[in-house]
Structures are given as C-alpha cells and as structure tokens.
Write the structure tokens for this entry.
Amino acid sequence: MFGKLKSALGSEKKDIKIVAPLDGAVVALSEVADPAFAEEMLGRGIAIRPIAGRVTSPVNGKVTQMFDTGHAITLTSDEGVEILIHIGLDTVNLKGEYFTPLVKTGDAVKVGDGLINFDIEAIKVLGYDTITPVVICNSSDYTQFETHINCVVKIGDEIITLGG
Amino acid sequence: MKELRHIITDELGIHARPAAHLVKRCSAYESEIMIGTPAKMVDAKRIMGVMGLGLKCGEEVTMTFNGPDADQAILDLQAFLKENL
C-alpha cells in the first residue's frame, strides 16, 4: 500500500547503477594515497587500479568538464549524479601529455562511450600512481550508497549503487 | 556582502585537490559563499562547480561572503588562498 502511495506521489526513486569506467581492480577509496580522495573530501566512491589505458562513460549523461590536462573528467548523469573520474595521482603535473581526450565539455555520452585514452605504461614508468578514483561528488544527496570493492572488474560491471 | 579577490599564483591552478580543500574550508561556515569570476560565480561549497570553473594561474578569483560568520570566513579564506593558490 505504501509502495503504491509512494509511486503515486512520485517520491519513489529507482536505484541508480554506476558501472566501471575502466578495466582493473576495485578498491576502497581509503586506499588512495591522497587525503583529498581517501578522506572523501571530493565525495564518496571507489578507486580502480587500471590494467588498461581506456576510460569509458559509467553513465548516460553529459560531460560537465573535460579538464584541459585530460587527466580528469566530470560527468552529470541523466538522474543528476555528479561523477569525477581522476586518472592517477598528481598526474595534473603531466600537463596533458600521455592523455588523449575523446570528448569535450558539454558532450552527451552513453554508458560505454570512450572518454579518455591514456598511455598507462608511460605514466607508470614516470613514477606516477595510476590508481583512478571514481567519486560521486554529490554523494551526500543519496541515503543509500553501496560499493562493490575488492574485486576485478571489466568496463560495464556495476561498481556503485545509489538510492534514496 | 563581503568580497575578496586573489590572483592565482599556483602554476596548476584550481584542480581537483585544491578544489577539495577549498570546499572543505568553506563548508565549515554557515554563510553563503560564492567563488568564480565576474562572468561566472558558483557555490563554493559544491565541488563540481568549483572544479568546473577551471581557474588557472594568473587569473583573478573573486569570492563573496554573505551571512552571520562572513567576517571569520573571509579572513580564513583569504589566508587559505594566499597559502595554497
């Protein structure tokens, strides 16, 4: 009865699924060696240790910002979820080298569309940690927040479920 | 309303990490705090907006403060900008 009432009032929200934007191993955000991420200052989320240099869209939505340096991107999903994907740590210092943006700010994207390619081997050899935080910047808007960590994922596998 | 201006001297500008620290600092205050340029001001307590400004070295950033603790906030943020950006 309440379920019916809820949907009649339009307040019932469906779970929102965020899928992996990279192939790799999913770990807790607290394992990232940068307090801005590990202490959830940018929002809650997970991190992926990538095994390939390809980032695809985890949602249907829009590119809110392609960073000039190509090392990070923010997206807003059709449901309003704000997502930051940050490739590696301190990689802003590379000033765009080894990163190839495939989309630009304002572009519409679908799940699985290519966003950024990066030369993972070169970036590693230069001494950068390639761990890639995937953060929900407006995670405080959601009461339900589930992460799927400590597993190996392929692009498209579910990593975060949001609700409420 | 109180206002401060600061020219960014950090070579890398306001990228993810400095944006996170700035938002955390602003979130400690009750006042409404906005940041940006005269062309585009955003809520300084929302990370996506602050990153989205893409402010770079040499650009002048404006911050406005409106509320009961605006005086403390403006002094604190002025110190923060000087120290970090």
